[in-house]
Protein 1
Amino acid sequence: EAIVASGISRDELCLAGTVNTGGCPDEDACYRQTKSYAEGQMKILSPEGGKLDMLMLDYPASAGCDAIAGQWKAFEELYTGGQARSIAVSNFSPEQLKCVQAHHSVIMPAVNP
């Protein structure tokens, strides 16, 4: 609401959302939670159905590589579905980034601050 009320053109804004599903227990649960939380961020930040400029996964799943793959699968679907212009991770170690690669990911994270 504040974005719309500001009168600032959408083209002048960078809308970024974060998702933290680091505590999810397994691949399937991580996939479902991550997709649900991301869609919630999109509804809050872009209620007109527009896309986010960046969607960031803010912590890797602590349940291991398969769980991380579930998180990233949800992000890839949102990206390929046109709901986010870029997808990224934060707080991932090099080993956790390898989990993303090892599960035949098509899109690698844009950033890992």
Protein 2
Amino acid sequence: CSTSPSSAPDVVVVRFDGKSIPGNVSVSLYDCSGASVGSVFAVDGIAKLDVPTATLAYARISHIEPSAGKIDPVTGGTYHKIMHVATTTMRTHCYASPSASTVAELV
């Protein structure tokens, strides 16, 4: 790998309803044991990061969708937002080319 033998460049693509989420979305990162290894921001749906090689890594995002006062069928109350959470698992390998990367898409 270009920066370190233990990590490789990777890209996380964050989409909702098939479209990149505009603005900044926090992407939480975890190693194979489930320990947090920090977070990055996906700017207009794209986050570039270094992930551990030859082991599993995980990413999690949350997105709040505004809602126009829908009725909850269980409680009868209204709600004005819907929270979506997505996770993905990735395994990155080092290749001879430093530009090689994988794409993990959160849909």
